[in-house]
Design a protein that fits this description.
By secondary structure, the chain is an alpha/beta fold. The protein has helices at 16-24, 31-46, 54-69, 76-90, 97-126, 155-162, 179-190, 203-208, 234-244, 275-278, 320-328; strands at 135-138, 168-172, 194-198, 214-217, 221-223, 228-231, 248-251, 257-258, 298-301, 308-311, 314-316. It is built from eleven helices and eleven strands. The strands form two sheets. A seven-stranded mixed beta sheet has the order 3-2-1-4-7-10-11, sandwiched between helices. A four-stranded mixed beta sheet has the order 8-5-6-9, with helices on one face.
Length: 331
């Protein structure tokens, strides 16, 4: 995804290291897609262990899990998918390595299929919130490129497009990596959606002009109290939406809910290289040599700013301490 929109290229990842690199270097990004890639990645990591005894297989599996989990610390889907894969190993003690590999492959495929279903379901729950001709603002990329198919924040947009709603979608460019400009604008415009690209700091102005009716964003982790970590700049969007009286929704699968994380203050925020701010996308550096740079990849939007959290099981509303556990309860 680092090549889009200038070049469309499909890459084949055959080893654990290639999967780790792809996730860390953002060739694969978006919380659901990261989880899917990690599931496949740990299966690939264990293929060379097809002939070892169970104890050694389990030991090498734990090493691979810890390594893959280090690629993106903020996205809870990464660890969630790896933990699901781990249960395959711990739940089949004494099985042969070849049998475990078969089970790991089946589980990774299951995670992939479930995400596609979850994304469509999120769109179906979000669709009643939309009316023909509405203006929608989104931030970063929570679309097809970030998931298995429909996206989370864009799923309802695609379903509405099929029904002829004629929505107008405004994409924040999403500095410094421009996921909104390079990815969301790319995929929506290719799908025939009426799409307008804006700089991040233009959102409040468009809201004041009455062009934005609702905000849909994805997220990488939801704390037990409803605080949500998403791409840097999301908090500013939520604050502006609250000021202008515009509903702000988080769209995410239940795998993004982390009940062990009490509040947003407990979510680790990844710091990325300064070069992404000072040099990336420019022919020469746009900052003074040696200037100190902060580059947090995410920020946390407080639960008090979130109108609702749209999942594949419905829409959670405040108080989230009550509604989120209901979403996680076994069906």
């Amino acid at each position: 995804q680092t090549l889009l929109p200038g070049e469309v290229k499909y890459i084949r990842l055959r080893t654990q290291q290639e999967v780790w690199d792809a996730i860390y270097l953002l060739k694969v990004r978006g919380a659901p897609a990261i989880g899917i890639a990690a599931a496949y990645g740990i299966y690939l990591a264990m293929k060379p262990a097809a002939a070892v005894a169970y104890a050694r297989f389990a030991e090498r599996f734990e090493e691979a899990l810890n390594y893959l989990a280090s690629a993106r610390p903020t996205a809870v889907n990464l660890v969630w998918a790896l933990e699901r894969m781990k249960r395959v190993v711990t739940g089949n003690v004494g099985e042969s390595a070849s049998s475990l590999l078969t089970l790991l492959k089946e589980e990774s495929l299951r995670i992939h299929r479930e995400d596609e279903h979850a994304c469509r379901a999120i769109g179906q729950y979000a669709l009643p919130l939309l009316k023909p001709g509405m203006g929608i603002l989104t931030h970063c990329n929570a679309g097809r490129l970030a998931t298995s198919k429909y996206g989370t924040a864009t799923s309802a947009v695609y379903l509405a497009q099929e029904r002829g709603y004629g929505l107008k979608v405004y994409c924040d460019e999403t500095r410094p990596l421009l996921q909104g400009a390079r990815l969301t604008a790319f995929e929506l415009s290719r799908a025939g959606v009426d799409t307008t690209l804006i700089c991040d700091n233009m959102a409040s102005h468009l809201m004041s002009e009455g062009l934005i009716d609702v905000v849909f964003t994805g997220c990488d982790r939801i704390a037990a109290n409803g605080d949500a970590a998403n791409k840097i700049g999301t908090l500013s969007v939520a604050v502006n939406a609250a000021y202008h009286g515009i509903p702000f929704y988080i769209c995410a699968p239940i795998s993004s809910i982390d009940p062990a994380c009490k509040t947003g203050a407990d979510i680790p925020i990844e710091e990325r290289p300064a070069q992404e701010v000072t040099d990336m996308w420019f022919q020469k550096s746009m900052a003074p040599p040696g200037i100190r740079v902060r580059n947090p990849a995410f920020d946390v939007t407080g639960a008090n700013l979130i109108t609702g959290i749209i999942t594949e099981r419905g829409i959670a509303k405040p108080p989230y301490e009550r509604s989120l556990p209901e979403m996680l309860s076994p069906i």
